[in-house]
């Protein structure tokens, strides 16, 4: 919080011991809570941050700082932006201070093979050392991967999986765990909706030249999933949000990422109490 009111891009330098303490304590909290979270409104659901620390602070100024507001973030806290360390350290600190009101899901960039090449590793090495990066990797391997809000909204970073038949399958994923190349965990972090696909398709919309990973899924898959589990909505991030599109027959919503391709833009979904429904906030 030391850069509140300072010029954007101002660094916050923590000691290696402080960062290690954050990673270890947050890791223990993640493991003490379910891998599939069950949460209640009021709650603000937030999309990708990608190292944009100034925009993260702006989000809190708009939505309310933790304790005054409850949050769940859908992953991708690091890479691309210039201040991944400030971003993830602040998020972990809030998780430690408010463990029952502040929640962090895992994104596909909370994975060593991704953030090794997309900026976070280099930032850790430049400002500290490789040991710091490994501490974060151990912490990321313990993050929850999905959440259900008010028994009606399914939240994850990526999307659905052809392997997902029961929520119990998610609950049985053992942590710590690295993200595999295929399977349920991979799909929850990597798959994308596609309104032009029926059933499952090849996921070719992969960033920065990465090889095709996981699947795309069509409106029919979304409808079947929601009906099977008595849900109303899938809330996810992972992609650049297009304001002209609401995917999969209004049953899937993608939150805007806050990354270099849409600098200064990030999205949150504010959920009020059950009686009042949801309210979108830019």
From TrEMBL:
InterPro entries on file: Calcineurin-like_PHP (IPR004843), Metallo-depent_PP-like (IPR029052), PP1_catalytic_subunit (IPR050341), Ser/Thr-sp_prot-phosphatase (IPR006186), STPPase_N (IPR031675)
Source superkingdom: Eukaryota
CC annotations in GO: cytoplasm; nucleus
A GO molecular-function descriptor: metal ion binding
SUPFAM superfamilies recorded: Metallo-dependent phosphatases
EC number: 3.1.3.16
Annotated Serine/threonine specific protein phosphatases domain residues: 105-110
Family per similarity comment: Belongs to the PPP phosphatase family.
Protein name, UniProt field: Serine/threonine-protein phosphatase
Native source species: Darwinula stevensoni
């Amino acid at each position: 919080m030391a850069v509140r009111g300072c010029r954007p891009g101002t660094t916050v330098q923590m000691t290696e011991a402080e960062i290690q303490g954050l990673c270890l304590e947050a890791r223990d909290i993640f493991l003490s809570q379910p891998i599939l979270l069950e949460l209640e409104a009021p709650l603000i659901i937030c999309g990708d941050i990608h190292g944009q620390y100034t925009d993260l602070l702006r989000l809190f100024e708009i939505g309310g700082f933790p304790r005054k507001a409850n949050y769940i973030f859908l992953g991708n806290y690091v890479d691309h932006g210039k201040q991944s360390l400030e971003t993830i350290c602040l998020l972990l600190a809030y998780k430690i201070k408010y463990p029952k009101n502040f929640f962090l899901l895992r994104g596909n960039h909370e994975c060593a093979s991704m953030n090794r090449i997309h900026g976070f590793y280099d930032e850790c090495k430049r400002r500290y050392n490789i040991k710091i990066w490994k501490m974060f990797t151990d912490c990321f391997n313990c993050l929850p991967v999905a959440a259900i809000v008010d028994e009606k909204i399914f939240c994850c970073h990526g999307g659905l999986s052809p392997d997902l038949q029961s929520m119990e399958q998610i609950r049985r994923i053992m942590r710590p765990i690295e993200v595999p190349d295929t399977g349920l965990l991979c799909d929850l972090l990597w798959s994308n909706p596609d309104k032009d696909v029926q059933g499952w398709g090849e996921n070719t919309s992969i960033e920065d030249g990465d090889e095709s990973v996981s699947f795309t899924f069509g409106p029919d898959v979304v409808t079947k999933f929601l009906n099977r589990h008595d849900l109303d909505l899938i809330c996810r991030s992972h992609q650049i949000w297009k304001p002209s599109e609401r995917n999969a027959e209004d049953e899937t919503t993608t939150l805007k990422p806050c990354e270099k391709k849409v600098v200064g833009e990030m999205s949150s979904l504010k959920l009020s109490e059950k009686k009042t429904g949801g309210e979108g906030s830019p």
